[in-house]
From TrEMBL:
It comes from the Eukaryota. It comes from Heterorhabditis bacteriophora (Entomopathogenic nematode worm). The lineage of its organism: Eukaryota, Metazoa, Ecdysozoa, Nematoda, Chromadorea. This is Uncharacterized protein.
């Protein structure tokens, strides 16, 4: 998963300004955090 995202970010920054690659990395980081948050919430409600 991480290797895929890193490759995608590198391709994005090569094709567009650096800020686009940074945004893609930030979005990937946020989506990963949100997934962890959802898992935590589901675990909390199950308990």
């Amino acid at each position: 998963m991480w290797a895929n995202g890193e490759t995608q970010a590198e391709i994005s920054s090569a094709a567009a300004p650096d800020c686009t690659g940074e945004m893609q990395a930030l979005i990937d980081e946020m989506s990963g955090f949100i997934k962890l948050l959802i898992v935590d919430i589901m675990t909390f409600w199950d308990a």
